[in-house]
Amino acid sequence: MAEEEVNYASVVFKSKKYRPTQARKEEETVYAEVKGQSKKTEETADTNAGVLLDKKANNRRLQYQQLACCLGILCVILLLGIIAVVVLYHRLSPESELMAANHNLTNLNNNLILANEKLRRDNNNLTVQLSNLTQNYTVSESKITNLNAEVQNLRAVNQQLETQRNNLTEEIQNMETDWNKLIIIQAQWSIDAYCPKTNDVSVRVCKACQNGWLPKESKATNCYAYNNAKAPDQKTWEEARENCRGKGSDLAVVHNEEEKDELYYYSKGTDGYWFGLRAEGGRWKWIDGSDLTVSYWTPQLPPTDGQCVMSVQNVGWRSVSCAEKKQWICKMKALSV
């Protein structure tokens, strides 16, 4: 290799300075010189190079052996690792994948179960809501039907009331007409009762009390009708009062000594006459609502409900059962003439 480098150097430098012919001569000379010198040093260089080459070769061979050994060991380790990885992969990977897949499927199944349960609850709630809405709709529809029926009934009742109102209006008008006629008749009756005609048809003589009522004096303030009925026609206290009301009067009431004397004077016979005093609520009460405050009655018995008072001539007042049948005295205001 040293020889090739020297030759290359001599060729490069010598060829650039001289002419070609001369350069060839000089090149040959230099080559000869170099060649001559190389022959001398070739022998020593060969011996040294041989020794060095052997050492280098030995070193390189040792290095190569060590490297090959390391590479072999490394390859064996890698191969064992690959084998172990492959074995572990074949052993563990399917189970792991299956476990992971099973876990995922389990989670998915659980999620589906939860979703299904939620859907079931939602469906139940919707079913209940639908049932409630249906029931409410049915109830509302029934209420509407009932309301419509009530409206129809109210319309019918209103029509009936309208008809009744018209009928009542007509009856009132008729009653007013009849009442006016009755007033005229009553007035005429009162005139005939209080002012009867004399033998002269054109002349009337008026008096304070009607025919059949006492007293007959024109200055009397009260008129009395003494109903001297026989035993079969006598009445209870209530019946006697109804009879008096039918005559436009009521049972006699006493508020002073004059009225007491009049009542006593006309109470003829021993059967007694009902007048307007009875026991009510533990008190003796007149039919006009006032209490018996003045003791016109001696001796006065304790008031007992169901007891009424009658007047007996020459005896006075007596308390007997209101259900007994007696004669009775009616009283009314006298006509001022």
List the helices and strands and how they pair.
Blueprint: H1 2-15, H2 20-194, E1 222-227, H3 237-245, E2 250-251, H4 257-265, E3 273-280, E4 283-286, E5 307-312, E6 316-321, E7 327-333
Parallel strand pairs: 3-7
Antiparallel strand pairs: 1-7, 2-7, 3-4, 3-5, 5-6
Helix pairs in contact: 1-2
Alpha-carbon Rg, integer:
78 Å
Largest beta-sheet characterization: 7 strands, mixed
How far from one another are the termini?
191 Å
- Provide the helix percentage: 55-70%
Number of helices: 4
Tell me the quaternary state. single chain
The number of strands is 7
β-strand percent reads 5-15%
- Average pLDDT, rounded to a whole number, is 78
Q: Low-confidence stretches at least 5 residues in length (pLDDT < 50)?
A: 1-19
Structural class: alpha+beta
The general outline is rod-shaped
Number of domains in the coordinates? 2
Q: Can you write the helix and strand succession as a string?
A: HHEHEHEEEEE
Question: How is this structure best described in words?
Answer:
With 337 residues, the chain is of the alpha+beta class. The chain has two domains: 1-125; 222-333, Mannose-Binding Protein A, subunit A (Mannose-Binding Protein A, Chain A). Helices cover 61% and strands 12% of the residues. Strands 1, 2, 3, 4, 5, 6 and 7 form a seven-stranded mixed sheet that branches. Strand 3 and strand 4 (283-286) form a beta hairpin.
